[in-house]
């Protein structure tokens, strides 16, 4: 059984050095340069809200919306946790971008063969037992890599140890079914640009409610339509067999009188 | 007479300008990428091409399956005269939707991936397949018009045999994908404004497509009558108008009940853009047409029918654009407006549709049908046609 990996971001420990973005860009061969927002060349970015630095990137959800909506299955949730994108399959419909509750995926709008770009959670490194470049580069331990359940325990421990310091919530634990990137902070999440209104149910379930009805619609509908055709076309056959004219074009024709 | 010539030249000039602009926009789109040609962004990944070309285009072509169902399955023969032009409109409509999609997809040359790479959890996968299959169905329903022209009686015969299963398949496919266009937005409850988001979006999209289909039948018939100097099938359109009233009333009740159960009535009176758009959509697109078309006097007048149909179409387009574009604005925190190139491409596609339809009406037996066959059972009609076709040298 492969354990789910995760990252714990303790916002109170972040000093805004941007080492995470630098390491990420180097590892993924992205164009260098400081970026303060996610972009096709910035899988992680330090956003500044009310003087506080918050690193944002793909949340690598437990029940990813992008995985669910992609018509060609270009996204996959791996057993270790990372949600990975296969550009060879992508047709560029951008439903993943439309649907992602965290508005993470970025697009190469200026390319003629555009790709969706987002954090890959250093999947290759993790598979070989290593850790993501950003977690390795973080000098203060604000970004910590580990097993998801252990990190949740640790986050709770930190909150309980200093209840006046931390907001009693681990963001990412339950949102949209839980994510792999967990946050704890002292400043309320709403003030740091987090969407705190997200449901706990994974979003793909909303679609499944509708999609699951399709087999019934097709089978029942098909039988119904065939049946209606049988009835309505029989009517004319009967009329003709009884030597009468075909059913008149007008509606409200009189019922058979004595003929 | 002079004014008529002047009008025709005006439309032809407009068409030329639009097509030229569209050609340039096409060049930019495919040589420089979506970013240069559109105002799309990471926050607004879908714009006019999805909101109008796809979401409205598919719905406006809904007449195809509704009239086919009425004529072939429910055996309401008196609608037969309008079946062929409606199938033509639908077939063209779907072809144009696919063209629009080729512009919007980031990698349109990979569009075939959906055939071999499957994700049955994705609504878009289902829409893609249903649209693909239904366009094939429409092609088969449209084929007789071409086959008759070229007098290919044997092929016609084969098609006749499979006509009913094809029509049933078409109705099922249409039901699925018309509703699925709404289902696509089920997954953004936090992004779509509460006046539009509902677990019943697929049902609303399906029912509104039925109304749009009726409206397009009236719209197309009215325009064709004017341009090709044909008579207007007034009795048929009168009935279609009544069907539209019933469908719209059902739709209105559903939307209101849904608003009640989701407790969003209060939102209908908050002074903001979304509220005004909502009232416009429901007022112009649903309530006014119901009031107008419920009156026999209006349904029997050419202009009354036309205006009623146009209102339904405007309301329908507003609803789809509200779900796809403006309803997402508040949560996006930024606004989107199509670039001139996006608009040019959309207008060019529509213009192309009008041109293609007039060519088809001119060269294919779309309207000749109705003179002889009204009221006869389908089998007799086909037998007659086949004998006519095989007799000709």
Write a compact overview of the structure shown.
The complex is a heterodimer of chains A (259) and B (393). With 259 residues, chain A is of the alpha+beta class.
Outline the structure in words.
- The complex is a heterodimer of chains A (259) and B (393).
- Chain A is an alpha+beta fold.
- In chain A, 31% of the residues lie in helices and 14% in strands.
- Chain A is built from eight helices and nine strands.
- Chain A has helices at residues 19-27, 65-69, 95-99, 123-127, 133-137, 148-161, 204-211, 214-241; strands at 5-10, 45-49, 52-56, 75-77, 83-85, 106-107, 116-117, 143-147, 181-184.
- The model of chain A is unreliable at 251-259 (pLDDT under 50).
- By secondary structure, chain B is mostly helical.
- Chain B is built from 17 helices and no strands.
- Chain B has helices at 2-32, 34-37, 48-60, 63-73, 80-104, 113-116, 123-149, 153-183, 201-227, 234-261, 273-293, 296-299, 302-324, 329-332, 340-363, 369-373, 378-391.
- In chain B, α4 (63-73) packs antiparallel against α5 (80-104).
- The model of chain B is unreliable at 370-375 (pLDDT under 50).
- The chains are: A alpha+beta (259), B mainly alpha (393).
- At the A-B interface, α2, α3, β6, α7 and α8 of A face α1, α2, α4, α7 and α8 of B.
